[in-house]
UniProtKB/TrEMBL annotation:
Belongs to the HIBADH-related family. One of its GO terms (molecular function) is 3-hydroxyisobutyrate dehydrogenase activity. Transmembrane segments: none annotated. Pfam families: NAD_binding_11, NAD_binding_2. It comes from Alteripontixanthobacter maritimus. Its EC number is 1.1.1.31. Residues 162-288 form the 3-hydroxyisobutyrate dehydrogenase-like NAD-binding domain. NCBIfam families: HIBADH. InterPro entries: 3-OH-isobutyrate_DH-rel_CS, 6-PGluconate_DH-like_C_sf, 6PGD_dom2, 6PGDH_NADP-bd, HIBADH, HIBADH-like_NADP-bd, HIBADH-related, NAD(P)-bd_dom_sf. This is 3-hydroxyisobutyrate dehydrogenase.
Length: 289
């Protein structure tokens, strides 16, 4: 399949490479010359514009920084230049309203489109083990699934347009809540005289067990290897968690959904990032306690 890939950053570069590994012909575009050079090394064909990349393709995949850029890229460069029978797949994490607006604009122009944000970090993007949460019609999902399977371990249809984004921000709000809870609990346990490893041995097999503890423990030297064992380098940056929490707070306000725990987690990450910790892994929030 001939696929255009727009946005070759930390996530997109690995995703595009996996499409090549799966046997697809990938036409790639990014504003960064270095990213295009890496894409070439990974077997992609670099293009000088979005319009050039989408010419004659069967699918368009994008991984872009924010909703405004997504809206601009699709309305100005993808729609009208890509063939009408191409499936449009936006994997960016953006606000629900913009995702639905872009999908609506695509539909009006005769295109099928899905929003397909991901769960999993840079390593999962490179390893082809992402989880995709997909919003769109049944037909659009079916057409996108083949492309997404080449980049992930799970592809789940969340419902109509925008529901992929809704699932993503709800999931990451929950992640922030149980990570901050895990951190404050480990800090309290240590202050009460419990050895962190001993507390882990107890809590990891008790009712307090959760993913942030047993798969991504924020305490260095405790549990499976995690960014905490590398001075909180790599993994999922605090700045990216904060981006998702801001989107969650915006969505909660729009939906009139009370989210007191999500709001508290967002406040903690606002303060932590504001103190210059945006590039540290989000589990470094342990330092707050």
């Amino acid at each position: 399949m001939k696929i255009a890939f727009i946005g070759l950053g930390n996530m997109g570069g690995g995703m595009a490479a996996n499409l090549v590994k799966a046997g697809h012909e990938v036409r790639a575009f990014d504003l960064s010359a270095d990213a295009l050079d890496t894409a070439r090394e990974n077997g992609c064909t670099p293009c000088t514009s979005v319009a050039e990349a989408v010419d004659g393709v069967e699918a368009v995949v994008s991984m872009l920084p924010n909703g405004q850029i997504v809206l601009s890229a699709y309305t100005a460069d993808v729609i009208g230049n890509a063939p009408k029978d191409a499936i449009l797949i936006d994997c960016s994490t953006i606000d629900v309203a913009t995702a639905r607006e872009v999908s609506s604009q695509a539909a009006k122009a005769g295109y099928a489109m899905v929003d397909a944000p991901v769960s999993g970090g840079i390593a999962a993007a490179a390893g082809g083990t992402l989880t995709f949460m997909v919003g769109g019609t049944d037909d659009a999902f079916g057409r996108a699934e083949t492309v997404l399977n080449a980049m992930g371990k799970a592809v789940i249809h969340a419902g109509d347009a925008g529901n992929g984004q809704a699932a993503k921000i709800c999931n990451n709000m929950l992640l922030a809540i149980h990570m901050t809870g895990t951190c404050e609990t480990f800090a309290m346990a240590e202050k009460l005289g419990l050895d962190p490893q001993t507390f882990y041995n107890i809590a990891s097999v008790s009712s307090g067990q959760n993913w942030s503890m047993t798969s991504y423990c924020p305490v260095p030297g405790v549990g499976p290897q995690s960014p905490a064992d590398n001075d909180y380098k790599g993994g999922f940056a605090t700045a990216l968690m904060l981006k998702d929490l801001r989107l969650a707070m915006e969505a909660a306000e729009t939906a009139n959904a009370p989210v007191p725990m999500g709001a508290r987690a967002a406040s903690l990450y606002e303060d932590f990032a504001g103190a210059g910790n945006g590039q540290l892994d989000f589990s470094a929030i342990l330092k707050t306690f």
